[in-house]
Design brief:
By secondary structure, this protein is α+β, with helices and mostly antiparallel strands. The longest helix has 16 residues. The chain binds guanosine-5'-diphosphate (GDP) and magnesium ion (MG).
Amino acid sequence: IEKEKIRNFSIVAHVDHGKSTLADRLLELTGVIKPGAEQSQVLDQLQVERERGITVKAVTASLNYTYENETYLLNLIDTPGHVDFSNEVVRSITACQGVILLVDANEGVQAQTVAVHSLAKRNNLTIIPTLNKVDLPRANPDRVKTQLNSLFHIEPETVLSVSAKKGWGVKELLEAVIKRIPPPPVSSDSHFRAHIIDTWHDKYRGVLCLAYIHSGNIQIGQSVRWMSDSKQQTVKYLALLRPKEEPIDEATAGQVVMVGCGPKGGGSVGDQLVSIEFPTTEINSSTTPVRHMVYAGVFSADKSQHTLLGEAIKKLALNDSAVSVKPDSSPALGQGWRVGFLGLLHLDVFTQRLLQEYKAEAILTAPSVPYKIKVKGAKLIKHYKGDEIIITNPLQLPDPHNIAEYYEPFVKGTIITPVEYIGAVTTLCIDRRGSPLPSSVVDENNTMMQFILPLSEIVVDFHDTLKSITAGFASFDYEDYGFHKSVLVRMDILLNGTLVEELSTIVHVSRLEYSARRLTEKLKEMIPRQMVQIAIQAVVSGKVYSRETIKAYRKDVTAKLYGGDVTRRKKLLKQQAEGKKKMRSVANIKIPRNTFIDVLKR
Ligand code: GDP
Ligand code: MG
């Protein structure tokens, strides 16, 4: 196939605006699935996706379509629709020359529409603005066209209208893809080079990759190598995804294909596969490194599950290159892993996939964000070359005397809300240490507000709170705004004067009193009464900011049973013994394991 007949595109939209439904219609129209097939939302393959109605993994489908007697190869790259997954969106977008920007004609432009639009702009992609759900009686295409014009300067005449549900306008949309989106700017004359936009693991065939071919041709049996190492590999598997695999013998520049080099053949996202003759000097990597915004400890529910969980995490991490995994251990929770995620939904989906796909039960600690510090004398810190350190765990924080500057990650948050909630939204954002940016008019009833916010203030429950104060009407999305100077301290928790390492947190000075009070109060609720009185203190650099006391029990639980009912007493002791397994003991105080998981959640 010549590259003039190839179109690589993606559908981008706010969640629920109809991407998956539209993808199904495109698949039907190109004969991949029969109309009305039960297997709807073909591209949402994973169980989590079906349950949550969100697309997690980007999956591609190569479609044939004949237009004016010419057959085109249209590569639809389905992209995930949630803020957390923007990494996957970015990855798949590097293979695209255009996007269908889908907007619900009833709901109108939402925060994520703004985010995906600016992503497409940044990547110089052709945008096909498309209104969906025009079949709805409350659809208001003119209002949404006005929104598109006022926010993105999109001319109303260029906007298409479809109903993905009813199939209206879908043929015209497909033809717009052919007419408006340019063919891939590639050359098939030079050496073979492809970059990997996705990988997954196959039990028998090893790592399979989704590759976008930048130049040259690839054939089964061809000798290739990964840019990351120089070992010679052989192309063993080559297929189009329609979205079912359709084996092919060769592929050419501009195509998006599945490639595999066998069980030992390797392959990872962002790497490049090149022909053996490819000159090393010519490589320019086009991938942006992943930034982990949220970290959490992952531990097995009990020891016997440790190995199983470890393997499952390893496999999932291979399938989801956006996570980072490092070994971690905690006196309370045992051996585990510290896992970096793009955001909270990412973390949630990861845990759910562990359970569903690998039957591994995991315990997750409360999420935290990475901080950065500049140390005064770099020599004081072991293992670090520069004077900047990224801290993903509060205990890594050096002595405050050695710290010159603190930085915390910020985001630029976009909120689209009906005007009547502007006051409530402003209060929420200011309360979360946000600084407002100028807002924009969306239409007469809606406004787009933007704030610079510390990430630590939104990772836990910002989205839920925003939804509840706006009756569900506001939408939120954020983009990375980098590290900025901050004033932070490490707050420790002491139980009867003994430090409990797992409960240390990094907090902003303005939130110190509040966090200290909240944490000690919560611990008082969660730690059961014991034989001794327990003093709970929140401490920063030796100074106590909050204190609670748990009074002691007067008697042994079983004392009153002495000489009485033996079986009952045995049963009680057995229960206590079992309970002990799930306890961590600090200074003779027994703390239930789940305390460590739950106390830091809001
Ligand atoms: P996604 O999150 O963008 O993938 O959205 P989905 O394709 O899952 O669609 C979200 C919801 O909108 C589903 O309940 C669809 O049935 C519904 N939907 C999608 N397209 C249309 C449409 O054209 N008309 C109507 N009435 N509903 C639609
Ligand atoms: Mg979907």
